[in-house]
Amino acid sequence: MKDIKIVIVDDSAFSVAFIRNILEENGFEVVGEAGTLDEVKEVVKDKKPNLVTMDMTLPGTDGLECTRAIHEIDPNIKVIVISSMMDDEIVNEAKKNKVSAYIQKPLDADQLITAINRVMASDELYEYLQQEYFAVFKEALMDGMNRMTKTLVAYESEYTDNKEQESAGMTIIIGIIGKFAGRMLIDLSKETASNISAAIFRREPKSNDEIIAALGEFANIIAGNACSILNRKNKSLGLRVAPPSILTGDDVIISAPTFNTTTAIAQTNFGKLMLNAGFQKGEDEWI
């Protein structure tokens, strides 16, 4: 991640110096500066950067015109806007002009470095996530079960595929967004779900709705904790969970994902359950 050549576009000497200091302190190479459209074209052609930081307000031009000029030279160059101006209209225009990220001044060093890492490290970061994520989700399930029911989990088998599966009776699906989109699901029988909810409540559940609510929160905690651990390992991931979707019934089919997921069968004190999770490499989430 350190072999990135960066050009700073800003007409403020203070901003240029401030941004340069952040970048160089974090090991990035600043190969040029520009403050006008002509200077942007010249330095991009000459220095061939991988990434450009872009102010929005420039003499005789603006950041979007400069971004278009950069992409006419090389459409693969990433542009991160750093500007005091930020509203819905200008952000939408930035997206349309293929800006990769938008940061509002005053600039926070961690925010800039995180944005650069997320913009530039897609392949490397996805490979890292693929290697790390499932062990983290398995650990989160074990920890969640122990904390909420004071019992242990033992894993019996593990496999990777992208096939549809028949539900055992209840499926809780947690969507995941961030640098990469994915899902986590837990599938279990209605009896196992009832047993787990009874252990969580320390009493028999009063209704089926109470069982569904308990298992939805249980799955949400597991997915949220797993994503938090992954974010701490690499904050460029920026993973967040969506509210759970819960399917119940005797003939429920779990749709096959468009990407490979990993499944583990877990034996608990309350019965077996299936843990499944995976991430897809698609279009990057705009920062």
Instruction: Tell me the name of the CATH homologous superfamily of the largest domain.
Output: CheC-like
Structural class: alpha/beta
Low-confidence segments, given as residue ranges, are: none
Series of H and E elements: EHEHEEEHEHEHHEEEEHHEEEEE
What's the architecture of the largest domain in CATH terms? Answer: 3-Layer(aba) Sandwich
Number of helices: 8
Cα separation of the termini: 18 Å
Q: Main sheet, how many strands, which sense, barrel?
A: 7 strands, antiparallel
What amount of the residues lies in strands? 25-35%
- Give me the CATH fold name of the largest domain: Chemotaxis protein chec
Compute the average pLDDT. Answer: 93
| Morphology call | elongated
Query: What's the helical proportion of residues?
Result: 40-55%
Radius of gyration: 24 Å
Number of domains: 2
